[in-house]
Specification:
By secondary structure, this protein is mostly helical. It has one domain: Recoverin, domain 1. The protein has a two-stranded antiparallel sheet with strand order 1-2.
Amino acid sequence: MSELKSTFDHFDRDANGVIDFGEFCELLSALGAGMDEESAHVGFEAIDVDSNGQIDFSEFSAWWSEQN
């Protein structure tokens, strides 16, 4: 779990405890997932289950565990 938190913190560039859309795009790029902006928005909204415009650690960890 600490490795996952480190990954989350790495992409939480402003260290505010959430990943915003810009940070999410950086994450996608680092993963090699070249998406256009519209597709990135769709993915972001799918992960942001509470629809507050931010991905918190619990949302991130749920998404990450689905991917791995």
